[in-house]
User: Which sequence fits this backbone?
C-alpha cells in the first residue's frame, strides 16, 4: 500500500509522486523562441518548481511558508529546497509572464567636435548638405539620450561638443534630427504620431487622420 497524506486543502499526495510548488518563481527568459512565444524578449517567466513527494531526511523549513517540516514527514522537495504539503499542489500552476519595458539602445555618438570652428563646420554639413536640423542642445548626456529616444522613428544624429578654450572643457550634447516629410506621416503608427504630437505640445486626441492634419499644420 502506498503511503498517502492529505494537505489542509484536502489534496492527496502519495509517496514518490510528482507535484508542483504553489508559489511561482521568476526567471529571465530570452531568445528567438521567447520572442516567437510572447512577441518580446527578454521576459520574466514565472513558473512553479517541480517537486517529488518524499520523506524528510532531516528537519527542514518550508521555503514558502517557513513552517517546520519534521524529519520523516512527507513533503515536496527539489533535493535543494523543501516545501510543506500545504505549499505544493498536484495540478501544475499556470506560467505567468511579466513583460519588461523594452530596452531602447542608447543612440550612437555620430561625432565629437572640439571648439567653435569644428562645430560650425559640422552643423553646416548636417544642415545644408545632409538635411538635418539642430533640434536641441543639452548639458547632460542622459537628458539628450532621453529626448533622442522620444523622437520616434526619426533620423537622428547625436553629437558631443567640447567648447574650448573659451569655457574651459565644457561639454554639450547636440541632437540633430531630419524633419519628417509630411507625405511620409502616413507611414507612422498611431502611437508614433501621438508621440510626435506630444513632443510638439499638440493634443494627442483623435484619429490617425486628425493627428496627421494637426502635425501638418504645426
Ligand atoms: Zn509551506
Assistant:
Amino acid at each position: 500500500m502506498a503511503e498517502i497524506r492529505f494537505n489542509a486543502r484536502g489534496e492527496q499526495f502519495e509517496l514518490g509522486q510528482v507535484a508542483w510548488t504553489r508559489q511561482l518563481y521568476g526567471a529571465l527568459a530570452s531568445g528567438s523562441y521567447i520572442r516567437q512565444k510572447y512577441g518580446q524578449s527578454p521576459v520574466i517567466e514565472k513558473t512553479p518548481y517541480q517537486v517529488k513527494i518524499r520523506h524528510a531526511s532531516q528537519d527542514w523549513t518550508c521555503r514558502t511558508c517557513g513552517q517546520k517540516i519534521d524529519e520523516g514527514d512527507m513533503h515536496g522537495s527539489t533535493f535543494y529546497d523543501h516545501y510543506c504539503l500545504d505549499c505544493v499542489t498536484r495540478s501544475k500552476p499556470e506560467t505567468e509572464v511579466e513583460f519588461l519595458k523594452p530596452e531602447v539602445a542608447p543612440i550612437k555618438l555620430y561625432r565629437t567636435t572640439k571648439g567653435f570652428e569644428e562645430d560650425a563646420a559640422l552643423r553646416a554639413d548636417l544642415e545644408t548638405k545632409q538635411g538635418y536640423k539642430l533640434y536641441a542642445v543639452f548639458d547632460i548626456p542622459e537628458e539628450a539620450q532621453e529626448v533622442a529616444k522620444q523622437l520616434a522613428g526619426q533620423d537622428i544624429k547625436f553629437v558631443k561638443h567640447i567648447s574650448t578654450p573659451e569655457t574651459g572643457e565644457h561639454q554639450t550634447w547636440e541632437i540633430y534630427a531630419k524633419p519628417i516629410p509630411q507625405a511620409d506621416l502616413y507611414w507612422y503608427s498611431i502611437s508614433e504620431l501621438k508621440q510626435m504630437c506630444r513632443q510638439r505640445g499638440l493634443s494627442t486626441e483623435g484619429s490617425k487622420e486628425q493627428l496627421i492634419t494637426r502635425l501638418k499644420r504645426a
Observations:
- The pocket of zinc ion is lined by residues 62, 64-65, 67, 83-84, 86-87 (CB under 6 Å).
- The chain has two domains: 4-99, 109-217.
